[in-house]
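hey so i finally got around to running the thing on that chain from the lab meeting. sorry it took forever, my laptop kept dying and i had to restart like 3 times. anyway pasting the input first so we r on the same page abt which one it is
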Amino acid sequence: MAAPTANARSTPTAQKVDQGFKILISNSANLAVNFWEIEVTPQGVDGGDPINTSTQFNNKYHTKRPRALINAMGGKMKGQLCAGTRHEAEAMINIEGTITEHYPDGSTYAYYGYFKDVKFDAFKEGEKPTAEIEIIETDWDYVNSLEAGPTYTAASGTAG
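ok and heres what got predicted. didnt touch it at all, straight out
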C-alpha cells in the first residue's frame, strides 16, 4: 500500500482582493433596479457529503470518496431600497436570468439564477431602511434548456 506523500505550497499568482469594497450584483431581469448594495455574500459551492466506501474489508479507517457533482450555494445581498420602488425587487422574485457579481478589481462572475426572496428589515427612525435579497444559482440555461455553469472573467491585466 502506498502512503500519501507531502506536497509543497506554491505562491499564488492572481491579484488578491484587499478589502470587501465594493462588490455589486446585477440581474438581467432588471439591470436598473433601485437597490443600493450595503453587504454582499457571494455564491459558494458545496461538493456535498462524502460517499462512504467502507466495507467489511476495511481494518482501521472508514474510507470516503467525493461526489461527482457540486452544488451552488445561495448568496445574498443586503441593501437600501427606495420605499416607493420596492415593487421592483418583488417583481424580480423567481424570474430566471443572468446574475453577475462585479468585483472590486473589475473581474466578474456570471451565472444563471434568480432572486428567491426579498426580506424587508424594520423601518426605524434615525436609520436607513434596508432589505435582504437571497440569490439562487441554478446553473440551468433557461433559454436553451441545458446545464450551464458559471463564467468567471478576470479583470483586464490580471492573472485571475
